[in-house]
Amino acid sequence: MKKILVLTEVELPSDFPRQVEHYLGNLVQVEMRRTDFEGLKSQFRDVRRGQIRADVLLDYLEPRVRGYEGFDKVVLVINDDGYVEGLNFVFGVAKMSGSLALVFTKRLRGEQSLYQLRILKEVLHELGHSFGLDHCTDPRCVMYFSNTIEDTDRKGPGYCQRCMAKLRSLLR
């Protein structure tokens, strides 16, 4: 069984790890810890834009978290705004079949339960990439590409049948 560590700067419900496990077909074990990324964020902030350079941070951290404390995947939930070259912002980033996923919460904000649901969707989306899933054409699938917060709100936290079948085979 794959082990996932969620390191978060934001307050998430205590059952957040169980929610992630549920949507990943109970094929993973998830642990969550609160932390602070201020030092990291200051190193990778583009002062002119006021955003974190997400792809550069991912490249820097990826080799450092591989196998971290026995976890197969690490997800950082960062209370900030991220971008990659060519895009105004990203909700998150992960390398295909990588060991690290980053989720940026600034543009996910809203009423508390909606905010937490948006974070759950983005964590599941980026974990999907880290397990080898590509974007999906089904706008209700969590692997659908979110260009706007409305796209994120429209899609469910669940994977479509096709993505879930592929995920099950990748996780076994």
Automatic annotation (TrEMBL):
<dbReference type="InterPro" id="IPR012962">
    <property type="entry name" value="Pept_M54_archaemetzincn"/>
</dbReference>
<dbReference type="InterPro" id="IPR012091">
    <property type="entry name" value="Pept_M54_archaemetzncn_arc/bac"/>
</dbReference>
<dbReference type="InterPro" id="IPR024079">
    <property type="entry name" value="MetalloPept_cat_dom_sf"/>
</dbReference>
<keyword id="KW-0862">Zinc</keyword>
<keyword id="KW-0482">Metalloprotease</keyword>
<dbReference type="GO" id="GO:0008270">
    <property type="term" value="F:zinc ion binding"/>
</dbReference>
<protein>
    <submittedName>
        <fullName>Peptidase zinc-dependent</fullName>
    </submittedName>
</protein>
<keyword id="KW-0479">Metal-binding</keyword>
<dbReference type="Pfam" id="PF07998">
    <property type="entry name" value="Peptidase_M54"/>
</dbReference>
<keyword id="KW-0378">Hydrolase</keyword>
<dbReference type="GO" id="GO:0006508">
    <property type="term" value="P:proteolysis"/>
</dbReference>
<keyword id="KW-0645">Protease</keyword>
<dbReference type="GO" id="GO:0008237">
    <property type="term" value="F:metallopeptidase activity"/>
</dbReference>
